[in-house]
Amino acid sequence: MCTLQYIRSIATAVVFFAAISIGCETLGSSGGGPGVTGNPGAAGIDRPTLKLGEFDLEPKSVIDGDTLRIPSLPKTLRLIGVDTEETFKLESDAREAEADWPGYVARHLQSGKPEKFATPMGEKAKAFAQDFFAGAKSVRLERDRENQIRDRYGRYLVYVFVKHDGKWLNYNVECVRAGMSPYFMKYGYSNRFHVEFEAVMTEARAAHRGIWNKDEQRYPDYDVRLDWWRARAEIVRGFDNEAVGKSHFIALNDSDALERLTKHVGKAVELLGGVAKIVDYGNGPIRVYLSHRDRQDFPLIFFDRDLFQSLDLESFISESVRVRGKVEIYKHPRKGDEQLQIVINSTDQLSLPQAWPPPTAK
User: Fold this and answer.
1) In the chain, where does the domain assigned CATH 2.40.50.90 lie?
2) Which end of the chain is more exposed for a tag (fewer CB within 10 A), N or C?
3) What are the tens digits of pLDDT across the range 15-45?
4) How far apart are CA 220 and CA 163, in angstroms?
5) Where in the chain is the domain with CATH 2.40.50.140?
6) Any residues with CB less than 8 A from the CB of 278 and at least 6 apart, and which?
7) Coil/strand/helix, residue 300
């Protein structure tokens, strides 16, 4: 729940780290500039800046193809623009995949939507990452946007650079070039490396590397996934374009979104956010939570159950939606806790993406 106490504490931290970072910032090109040096550790990781500095690695820092752990940070890294296949966590899954690969895939895709599941290609992506970072003592971390710091699970949203033969290489881009991942843009195009990601994905497809090799045991539906992700990225791009110069347009994946909403209490805003969860206790309003960092999700309140049912929001979990409404403060009658919210009284307050599957899906 996005309590006002939480918002005030975050606001204080942002102001502090913004102050100490003034004068330390050098914006680089698409290849990344020298940035901030040293190992700032957890104390400085949440400051609003593009270049975070260099961080020490350890031999077991690689979790899988798109997740790394830095010893000095409390949460893992979530790599921007990359979505590798999953590694096997259960021996039973590995045995099933080996014994009946077509049946294993069919079982995981029976919902009709692209799902994430463990594959041999996921294991290859992890091995690629381990080889890529082998021998590296440190990495340089950079963000895509200064105010997009963590995801809903608290993971740091970053590009990871490592030195190879004296040159800093962007692992995120090189992972796509190697065919270990497509360019993942479901939550928006890369602001800094979009052109590079598109180019290296085209290169990898033409060379039939990794996931683009039909002989590999990998997801069989990447064309459908890319159609889906690109349609969602266009929603984000459209919102961003409309938001220029408009303070009441607020994207909930921005770290300062709740602070900005606090400044708009009693006023109309337009939000962009992903549907995280729906809570219905049966004897009160239905709450639809939109994702925000560290699970500080923002609630949409439905007193009208027929209205809620007409929108079929259960079908839009993890999808980006646009919301219009007045920001209110709700105070719990017994606990005294306060939270920001928007009450939904009309279907006109929500703009939903086109239902799955996208029209180009086969």
Assistant:
1) 31-220
2) C
3) 333 333 333 333 333 344 434 445 555 667 7
4) 34
5) 240-351
6) 286, 287, 288, 289, 313, 314, 317
7) strand
